[in-house]
Amino acid sequence: YPDYVLKSEGNNIMVHIDNLEEYISLVVDATVKTGIMPQIEAFRAGFNQVFSLSSLQIFTESELESLLCGGRELWAAQSLVDQIKFDHGYTSNSPSIVNLLEILGEFTPEQQGAFLRFVTGAPRLPPGGLAALNPKLTIVRKHSTGANGGIKGTAQATDRDLPSVMTCANYLKLPPYSCKEVMRERLMYAITEGQGSFDLS
Predict the structure, then answer these.
(1) What is d(CA 104, CA 177) in angstroms, rounded to the nearest whole number?
(2) pLDDT 10s per residue in the chain (201 long)?
(3) What is the pTM (predicted TM-score) of this model?
(4) Phi–psi pair at 140, nearest 5 degrees
(5) Which residue numbers delimit the HECT domain (predicted)?
(6) Catalytic residue of the set 20, 45, 53, 168
(7) Which are the contacts of 113, defined by CB distance < 8 A and separation ≥ 6?
(8) What is the rounded distance in angstroms from the CA atom of residue 84 to the CA atom of residue 19?
(9) Percent of residues in the chain assigned helix, strand, coil, to nearest 5
């Protein structure tokens, strides 16, 4: 941005080794301090109209982060069956659901976060965790499409299909894979490749 004046005296700064630190300091100030003050003040004024900023002083930083951004805690494996809805061909006792719950329970925190982003579009759960999702996380049976050269309805075709989601409804469409290992591989592929994309919906 050549028109942006970093220093009040003089329009341009000729950068050289003797004033490099000053130049870097001025650029940092312009990009994260004084340069964005009008936007910060507009945000504060707008937020203050909705919720008084002085009232927020009763909360700690971590409480505010949890209220505004959701919680960092994800889920405990033993509570998953009570916090998820199963429909359209699946029950909590379906072999595919048993496999899925085992896989989700084995996920690392990073994998749980990636799964959450894939299914809900959000990086964090709301306060109250998975049980507080609205609408509730729902897992339904996805019938084989016969894509990728498979014969529709066969186990081979099903194992080639990817799970898909409707993030606005917290809805996971899960094919009935032949085994847990195939499910884990297809689920991880969809989660990894589907980040930030609506191609798998």
Answers:
(1) 15
(2) 777 788 777 556 688 899 899 889 989 998 999 889 999 999 999 989 988 888 888 999 888 887 777 777 777 777 888 999 999 989 999 999 999 999 999 998 889 889 999 999 887 888 888 888 889 999 999 987 655 554 555 677 889 899 999 988 999 999 999 999 999 999 999 998 866 554 444
(3) 0.66
(4) -125, 160
(5) 6-201
(6) 168
(7) 74, 123, 124
(8) 59
(9) 50, 10, 40
* Residue owning tokens 């930083």: 61
**First-last CA distance in the chain:** 40
Name the residue type at position 28: V
Q: Are strands 138-141 and 164-166 parallel, antiparallel or unpaired?
A: unpaired
Q: Is 168 a catalytic residue?
A: yes
Query: Which residues in 142-192 belong to E strands, given as ranges?
Result: 164-166, 171-174
Q: List domains and CATH numbers for the chain.
A: 19-58 (no CATH), 77-192 (3.30.2410.10)
